[in-house]
Design a protein that fits this description.
The protein has about 350 residues and is mostly helical. It has 15 helices and five strands. α10 links the parallel β4 and β5. α4 packs across α14, α5 packs across α9 and α12 packs across α14.
């Protein structure tokens, strides 16, 4: 968290240049309040965020404006889900004494920087972003031919650069998410003078976890186990997971490398993964038995988060206070950056 003790650190990192003896760098990452996070979010993002708190100056944002890019027709739940998401973050171990936890819409400077960046970015460049076409295919039944949806990577770049973030944690398969952010920083620096760092990735070590149906894990597909699921819900979801489609009978040898259940063993019970693969390939264990053995390891990951959320649900005012404090601290930093941006652009400031 940025307080008086850290002001010297912030002041000496203008332009993203770290002073000797400072932490490794400045991190920004965000998550949309669009449904409850799932176990893939925890293993692929939140666990890594918690570890980074002791090494980096971390700002973690609940990016509620991003949620509106696909949920603009019915935004009533965004506020409630933002508070729920903050509770889940706290239950997973994000510490407001170590990190700045903030709400994107409480820092309007994000929108101003997004607008200024949009002035020099071309439409064809935005249309070439891989996730744009991927999301259009993935999310059906909604009109996504909006500027907000097309321009969300510009807002994402503003989210990152407004804090002069030097690092962003992503999976190795998601490097392209930061390509536009780097291009924006480079183009701004070239046009108006050096200001923004060229943000680097910090790769998460956990591989992508498939959904329970074998497809990409996505709340849009309904193939996830959320971090607040009850024990009965988790049991049902694990029991209904798809397995190797070519293993029809109990005596058929399986292919663990194509089975989502084996991927879950690697994630949640790695000590059992090698034996599970051997028994699958040699038809020594059936798929039903294999899935039953996975229930408790998944429960062990979800249970403490669910119980932590239940505790925070008894303290909604404290959660709101944490977000308010973090947002105010984040806004102070964002205002400084926007002032510098206006100076670089030569805009008159009354």
């Amino acid at each position: 968290m940025i307080g008086p003790a850290n002001l010297d650190y912030v002041a000496h990192n203008r332009g993203g240049v770290l002073r000797k003896g400072a932490m490794k760098g400045i991190v920004f990452s965000g998550m949309q309040p669009s449904g409850t996070p799932h176990i893939g979010n925890k293993l692929g993002a939140l666990d890594n965020w918690v570890k980074m708190q002791d090494e980096y100056d971390c700002i973690y944002g609940i990016v509620d404006w991003h949620a509106l890019t696909t949920g603009y027709e019915d935004p009533k739940e965004v506020g409630r889900q933002s508070l729920e998401l903050a509770m889940i973050w706290l239950a997973c171990g994000l510490d407001p004494q170590k990190s700045t936890l903030m709400l994107q819409s409480a820092v309007p400077e994000h929108a101003e920087l997004h607008l200024l960046f949009s002035m020099f970015l071309s439409l064809p460049r935005l249309e070439r972003i891989p996730t744009y076409k991927e999301k259009l295919r993935e999310i059906e039944g909604r009109n996504l031919t909006t500027y907000g949806f097309l321009g969300y990577p510009v807002l994402q770049a503003a989210d990152i650069l407004i804090y002069k973030s030097t690092h962003v944690p992503v999976g190795k398969d998601q490097d392209y998410h930061l390509e536009l952010t780097r291009e924006v920083a480079e183009q701004f620096n070239r046009l108006y003078g050096q200001l923004f760092p060229i943000t680097q990735t910090v790769h998460t070590v956990f591989p992508v976890l498939p959904g329970t149906d074998g497809r990409k894990m996505s709340k849009s597909y309904g193939n996830t186990s959320s971090l607040t699921d009850s024990e009965d819900m988790i049991k049902d979801k694990v029991r209904n997971m798809v397995t190797d489609p070519q293993r029809i009978k109990r005596t058929d040898p399986g292919r663990p490398e194509v089975c989502p259940v084996y991927a879950y063993y690697q994630a949640f019970a790695p000590q059992e993964a090698e034996r599970t693969a051997h028994e699958c390939r040699n038809a020594l264990r059936g798929c039903v038995e294999c899935k039953l053995g996975l229930v408790e390891p998944v429960q062990a990951v979800v249970r403490p988060v669910r119980e932590g959320v239940e505790t925070w649900q008894q303290q909604p005012d404290e959660v709101a206070r944490i977000l308010h404090t973090g947002s105010q601290q984040a806004r102070g930093r964002a205002q400084q950056t926007v002032t510098e941006v206006r100076e670089h652009l030569g805009l008159w400031q009354p």
